[in-house]
Design goal:
Oligomer: single chain
Helix content: 25-40%
Number of strands: 27
Strand order of the largest sheet: 7-8-9-6-10-11-5-12
CATH topology of the largest domain: Rossmann fold
Length: 563
Amino acid sequence: MSGDLRFGEAYRDNPLLKKAGVKVEYTQEQVDEYIKCKNDPIYFAKNYIKIVNVDDGLINFSMWPFQEEMLKLFASNRFVITKCPRQVGKTTTTVAYMLWETIFKDTQNCAVLANKGSLARDILAKYQLAYENLPMWLQQGVVTWNKGNVELENGSKIIAASTSSSAIRGGAFNIVFLDEFAFVPTNIAEEFFNSVYPVISSGKKTKIIIVSTPNGMNLFYKLWMDSINKKNDYKPFEIHWSMVPGRDEIWKEETIRNTSERQFKQEFETEFLGSSNTLVSGYKLQQLVYVDPVANHDLLKIYEHPVKEGVNESKSDHLYCITVDVSEGKNLDSSAFSVIDISQTPYKQVATYKSSSITPILFPTVIYNTARYYNDAYILVEINNNPQVADSLHSDFEYENLWKIFTGNKKPQQLSAGFARGIQMGLKMSPQVKAIGCSNLKTLIEGDKLLISDFDTYSELTTFVQQKNSFSAEEGANDDMVMSLVIFSWLTTQQYFKEIVNHDIRKQIQLENMNQMDDDVLPAPIIEDGLEHDFEIVGGDLWEIADGGEVYASFSKKMMDRL
């Protein structure tokens, strides 16, 4: 067969598709073209793929230079991550690559995944449209053809589904394409990656292609930054809005007028922006640097091992504390804790733990073992939803360095080491405690007095936003790691904590601010040389007159009075 389909040769009476088993008779010209297409995906896309244009209907795929570069990268690399603006033809380019892989290679098993199943099916629909408009001599016979699944007679398959941990579990895939991966909720993205990566990496030629517009500092952001810093095997490719013909400064100004500058920066400048109204300023969040763990024990991430040297071999003078947020058992909620080095300032996050599945029966064991490892670290547990965790540490493990809270005499909760009446085994997260903790957390991070090591914590900070009169995770995000730091930040305001660590952070910050103010106001100091000097007051300021009558140094009158 070299031309149109004859009766009985179409797949389910679709005149644009041939069914499996139909014999093909090629002309020499078609053979030559087939070989060219098989050897060059760009040639294939330019000459044989059709797309639907809003204004012109069905047209040939006229590729822009950056789209050609994308195809080259997809074809020559196992792992590719692309950061791109909206409306740059990324989907069409991906479809072109999927067509080339499934037509010219046998038994290619491909998955197209998006944050919503409907979006993935839309991509598959574009694949099907392009396929139906191929010449019959380029098509493989069709075995299966529906909204979520295509199978060709050469054994190649392509499925469309939402990105989830179960999307392709149990399958053997040659190519996984992740569309708009930045918009997949963080918990789902992490679960997916943990389940799918072993499937992909098991082969030597299997591929993962990630394409997305930025959407905050999430897993896509981490994968992108790690690719830039060569911490993973992904080949990074960035598309700028100016690479699209017709987009210039006039177009930019018009787009900003009709949207917003912030939206333009994220969707077209492809900047990674946190949410608006975050507790920690956006400027500071962009300056924070996360690090990779030096060790992993199940879900415990260790960024620094404990310092063991101390006054003697049996006891270290290096202090640590663990602040624990216990799960409510709802939605994205997890049990989590941070291990903080409190021996000196700035305080430093040295280990983290987060689990959505651990039970209150097992959680105390994890906390206890971690605390013992970190020089018998002090522990403060949030007890709003389940006091069992704190009670177990106190009663079952008889852990001595469990911090208690005094609640007597109708006073605000206070950190205590005693066992008097009114003592509870942990901290209740009241509106007052949360307000103090949030305020102090902002002060600590923005004043560089608390260093964040953990990426999950950093990511949560970018979505920890003002909600009415308080702060919490925005919809679709979680804040378990942040809340462990809120607990810690409240802890640092307590007098008993200051006595143990022997430093008052707020006073330290105030002193540093005063010193900075002095540095900004005072000029270079005047060294007493034993000679007489003439001074005069001009405009409320005190000026020293040099021998030549030149005014060369000034001090504010207020500052002089202080000195």
